[in-house]
Amino acid sequence: MEKSAEGSSRASTEKRKTSGGNGQVLDGSDIMELVGNEEVFGSYIDHKFQELDRDRDGKLSLKELEPAVADIGSALGLPAQGSSPDSDHLYTESVSWVSLTVALYFSHLTSIIVFPLHVGVLNEFTHGKQEKVSKTGFKDVLSDFLLGMASGLKRDPIVILRIDGEDLLEFINGPDYEAEMALLFSQLESPDGSSLHDHIVKVLEQLTVDQGMPPSSESWVKSNIVERTLQSCTVQDHDKPLSQETFLVEFKKVAGSVAQHLKEQPVIVAHCENTFEGSGIKRLLCNKFELDKTLNTAMENAPKDRNGKISKEYLRVALDAIAPSAGLPPIGAIHEMDEVIGEVLKMMNADDGKLVKEDEFKKMLTEIMGTIMLQLECKPRLHFFKYCCP
C-alpha cells in the first residue's frame, strides 16, 4: 500500500515538474489516478462516509449530504494526519493535489451556476427523491462526478502560477519593455482630466501573467498590491499632454515597486484560457449521425402542443442542451458568447412564440449553430477564468 502511494506521489511530482516554467497544470489526471486506485479511493470513501453519517445508520440523508455538496472542494478534506494509521496512507501528494484541483474547479464552475450546481449534485445522489444514500451509491455517484470533472479539466486545464515579482522585473528591465509599453500607451484613451495615475492603473490592467503581473482586475490584487504600491509611490502629474517618454519612466518605477510587493507577498494565480472559434460546431455539423443523435436528445423533453408542434421560444433551451456537444459554454456562463448567441437567436425571431413542427424546429436549430459557427470563425471569442489568492 505504501509503495503504491509513494509511486503515485513521485509520478504526480514528475508530471508537475514537466508542466513548463513555474506553472503547474491541473488537467484532471490526478483525479483519474485517485479514482482509479481502488484501495486509496475506497479508503477515502470509507472515511468520508463515516464522517457524514452522523446518526450512524449506514445511510446518508439529504441533511447529511448537504455539507458535502455545499462545498465539494472542502468536502475532499482528509482526517488530520497522524490521527489513524489506516488513514495516513491517504496523505499522498496525489490526493492533496486532487483536493486543490476540485477546489479551484469549483471556484470556476460555481461562479457560473452556484445554486443549480448544489441542487443538481444532490439530485444525482438521491435521484430527485427524499431517499437516503448507501455507501455504494455514494461511491458510485462521487466517482462519476469526479471523472466527469476530470474530463472537463482534460479539455480545459487550469494552470497555477506563483507570481513573486521576478518575471515582472525581468520584463521591465528586458529588451521588449519599451516597444510593448509604447504600444499600450498608444492605445490609451486620453480624455480631459485623465492623470498619470489613471494611465498607470489602466496599463497595469493590460499586463498579463506572461509579463509577471497578476490580474489587477481581481479585488484582492487591486487592494493589496496595486493600491498599496500607488500609495507608497509618489506619482506626480506632469504637463499635459503626457509624453510617451515620461510615461515609460514613471510606469517603470511603479512596476518595480509592484514587483517588490510581490516578492514580499507572492500571489497564486489559477487561470484557464478558452478560445471559441466554432470548430466544435463544425465537427458536429459534419457528422450527420452525431448531429441527429444530439438533436433527438435535445428534443426529448421539448414541450409540444396537441399537434406535436413546439414553440420557437424553446430554441434557447434546446441550444443550451446541445452546447457541450458543440463545444459551446452554457448560456449565461460567458458574456461574450451570450452576445453572439443572442444576436443569432434574434435573427431567427426565436422569441416570437410561433409554433413549428419538430422537423422545422431541428432545421432552425441546425441553422442557428451554423450561423454561430460562421461568426466565431470570423471573430473568435477568447475567455479567461482567473482566481487569485495570497
Notes on the structure:
- It contains 18 helices and six strands.
- It has 390 residues and is α+β, with helices and mostly antiparallel strands.
- It folds into three domains: 161 residues, no CATH class; 101 residues, no CATH class; 110 residues.
- Helix 7 crosses helix 8 and helix 15 crosses helix 16.
- The longest helix is centred in the N-terminal third of the chain and has 34 residues.
- The two termini are 35 Å apart.
- GO terms for molecular function: calcium ion binding.
- This is CALCIUM-BINDING EF-HAND FAMILY PROTEIN-RELATED.
- It comes from Salix viminalis.
- Keywords: Calcium.
Describe the secondary structure blueprint for this structure.
Blueprint: H1 2-17, E1 24-26, H2 29-36, H3 38-52, H4 62-70, H5 72-75, H6 85-88, H7 93-126, H8 135-155, E2 158-163, H9 166-172, H10 177-186, H11 196-206, H12 219-232, H13 244-264, E3 267-276, H14 279-286, H15 288-299, E4 310-311, H16 315-326, H17 335-347, E5 355-356, H18 358-378, E6 381-389
Antiparallel strand pairs: 1-2, 2-3, 3-6, 4-5
